[in-house]
Structure formats: structure tokens, C-alpha cells
Amino acid sequence: MPAEHRQLVLFPPSGRDLRRGQERGFPDVDAPEVAAALKAAVDDYAQRHGLGYNTAWGLDRGLRVLLSIQETPGARFRASDVLLLRDLLLPVSPLLRLLAELDMLDDDRTPNVVPWFRERTADLPEPMLGELTTWFELKLSGSTTAPRVKAQPHRWIQRMVTNALPALRAWAGQGKDSLRSITRADVIAVLPDSGTPRVDMLQGLRHILRPLKNRRIIFTDPTARIFCGMPTPTIPLPVEVDALREVLHDQEVPRAALAALAIFHALTSGQLRSLKTTDLRDGRLFLPNRTVLLADPVRTRLAACLDYRNRRWPRTANPHLFVSQTTGCGVEPVSHVWTNDVLGMPTSRLREDRLLHEADATGGDPRRICDLFGLSVGAALRYTGTIDQPGLIEHSLRNAGPAPRPGPE
Fold first, then answer.
1. Which residue intervals of 266-344 are DSSP H helices?
2. Pick from 62, 71, 14: which is nearest to 42 by CA?
3. DSSP3 helix / strand / coil % (the chain, rounded to 5)
4. 88, 188, 215, 392 from 98: Cα distances, Å
5. What are phi and psi of 14, to 5 degrees?
6. Which residues of the chain have pLDDT under 50?
7. Is the alpha carbon torsion for 57, 58, 59, 61 positive or negative?
8. What whole-number distance in Å separates Cα of residue 343 and Cα of residue 257?
9. pTM of the prediction?
10. Half-sphere exposure of 213 (CA within 13 A, CB side)
């Protein structure tokens, strides 16, 4: 159990330079029992996660440095102090996960969404800014008091604020300095006429004003019973065959494997990220809602990817098929950013190209797309409705050749 008390410091340091400490030597650890317990925890963590010798040594070294600069031996380590270990090229991310697992982490970091929110809303008048800040803190941390509120992901908060900011700034320009004075007519006046902009803005305003009304910070929800309409439909676009060949035959093994799964079998980014090595059996890919018989080019690239994975991370405990330098020391999946960066384009582009080709090859049969790729009927109609588009016909004629699709080899 971590110590709940903290030793007060007469002169708190304004900043630590760990590189100077490495040059001149760190103080001796004042709590040998705590050091021994943390050493045992590092050994156990390294064994369970299949960490190599260098990473395990870095974890042990980082903990000894943290113990030497800690004012209260046995207390939780501040995350801000752990981040200082980057100056010594020690593994910070695995160390943060280890300390969190041991309940020895005091996460005093400021989320990136906090300065982002302050910067974007700095020009709003009071008390509108105060009301919006109350909503922001409510969605950031959640609340267990009635009416209870669930904490939301930072990306969701950013999207809602971004959608609502044009309306908030318009009202501020009209001299309205509080959300309490906003009426239904004010909302209708700032909403775009139709399409996705109208849907996005009304969605952002509703997600902000409704919780404030439930908390009795404003008196009414002026967005109630306002019809938002439908988002502007988008047309899926194909990818040039040369671009498909380039990514499919790339020498980078993970990129070729990701591209093969997206080009041949139209897997989504979330499905690619969540794939585990145990999902590949007998030439098939077992997804939660369907089983995919893998094409021969996909099997070849996945076999190469597994060999690369075993060579690069021979002792990793991460069960996922795709592993990055960050996730090799843990068990979490790679991020959407990683998959898009490796592919050099959004995964959705390759998926849309495959679905468009299937719609064209089957003459616009939505049942075939639903059976092959697990789409709903509405999603399948988005692709079957494009087969007669002049631009897509021109694209098909331009790329017609001896190489069959999907999966230009």
C-alpha cells in the first residue's frame, strides 16, 4: 500500500534536470524495502509482458531514479516526475503503466484537451464562458451525483465544442453574454439551412445545452423539438490502381499486410486494430460477426507479417496481430493514427474501393455486399447506388486492363 502522507518541502524545486543528476550521481535510496518491492514488481511485469533485457533494465533504472528524488519514500510517484525520465532515454510509457497497475501513480498531468479548450473559448464573454466551462468539466470528469453524467472521450468533447463554437460566437457578437438568454428563435437563426453543417451544429448545441438545463444552470433547452434534417450524403470514391499496387507490394511488411486485408476483404480500421494472432486459423480470419476465407495473396502477406512480428518482438505478450514500437511493451492495440500512417492513407479509402468494385462486379446487388462484408442494407445501398455514376464509369474504363480486381497483383 502506498503511503498516504507526504513530506512537505521547505523549498520546492522549480525544475529538475535529471541529466545533471546522471552526470554527478543521484542520492542513495532512503527506503530499501520499497526499492526491493518495486524491483520484484519490475521483474514480474517484465516476465508477464515479455519485455527484453534492455527495457526491463530501463524500468528498474527509472524507478531507482524516481526513488532518489522522491520527498516521501513509499508515496505515489507523480506522473510529471516520471515524464522527466525522457531526458535520460528511459522507457516512460511502460513505467507509467506499471505504476498505475501497482496503484503507485499520482497522475498530475494536464490533459491536452484542457489548454485546447481554454484557447478556443478565450474570446467568449462571461458568464457564457463560465457556463461552458462547467459543461466541459462535467463531461471531462463525469459526475456521480444526480443527475449522473458519464465522462466522455476527449475527442468527443473537442468535436462538440468545435460544432457549437460558431453559434456561440455569433450570439456573443449579438451582445448575448449568457446561455440563459438564448431562445429557440436564436438557435434557428444561427443554424445552417440543411445538410451536414446543420446536423453538426445542432448536435453540438444539444449536447451542451441539455446537460446544463438538467443541472439547472440554464432554465430551458432552446434546442428541444428542432428538426435537424439529414447529413449531406457523400459518394464513395475509388482509388487508382497504381496506388493500390504500390501499397500492396510495399517492402514494409506491416504496410503490405494492412493493405491486403483492406483491399481484398474491406476490413475497417477498428477491425484491423483489434485483430489477434489467434483470429487467424486454417486460412481463415475469424471476426466477431463473420468468418472470412482469406485470399492467397493475403495469406502470403500475413505469414510474412507474423514472421516479422516474431523477429521484432519475440517476447511480447501483446496478443494483437499488429504491434507498434509503443504497444510492443504492453497489451493494448495500435491506434487509428498508426494504421493510417503506416498505410499512407486512411483505411476507409481502401475499404471503399473494395466495396465499390464488388458493387460494380455484382451489378449493384446489395445482398452480395451484405453477405460478404457484413454491411447493413442501408450501408450497402450507398455503394450500389453509385455504379451508374459517369465519373465511376470513366474511372473503370481508364483502369481496365489484364490485372483482375480486387487485389491487383
1. 269-274, 296-312, 336-343
2. 62
3. 55, 5, 40
4. 18, 51, 38, 52
5. -75, -20
6. 402-404, 407-409
7. positive
8. 10
9. 0.77
10. 14
Bridge partners of 77, per DSSP, are 105
C-alpha cell at 242: 497504381
List pLDDT tens digits, range 197-226.
Answer: 999 999 999 999 999 999 999 999 999 999
Q: What is the pLDDT of residue 409?
A: 46
Give the burial class of 339: count Cβ atoms within 10 A of its Cβ; 0-12 exposed, 13-18 middle, 19 or more buried.
Answer: buried
Q: What is the 3-state secondary structure (H, E, C) of 377-403?
A: HHHHHHHHCCCCCHHHHHHHHHCCCCC
Q: Which residues have CB under 8 Å from 299's CB, separation 6+?
A: 283
Each residue's pLDDT tens digit, 276-307: 999 999 999 999 888 999 999 999 999 999 99
Q: What is the pLDDT of residue 49?
A: 85
Q: Which three cell numbers stand for residue 116?
A: 485546447
* Element holding 61 (H helix, E strand): helix 53-69
Backbone angles phi, psi at 280, to 5 degrees: -100, 110
Q: How far apart are CA 273 and CA 333, in angstroms?
A: 6
Peptide bond into 406 cis (omega under 30): yes
Reported residue count of the chain is: 409
- How far apart CA 103 and CA 92 sit, in angstroms, is 16
Burial readout 179-190 (b: 16 or more C-beta within 10 A, e: otherwise): beebeeebbeeb
User: Rounded to whole angstroms, how far apart are CA atoms 352 and 262?
Assistant: 9
Give the separation between CA 193 and CA 273, rounded to whole angstroms.
38
CA distance 120 to 117: 5
Buried b / exposed e across 31-52, counting CB within 10 Å, b at 16+? beebbeebeebbeebbeebbbe
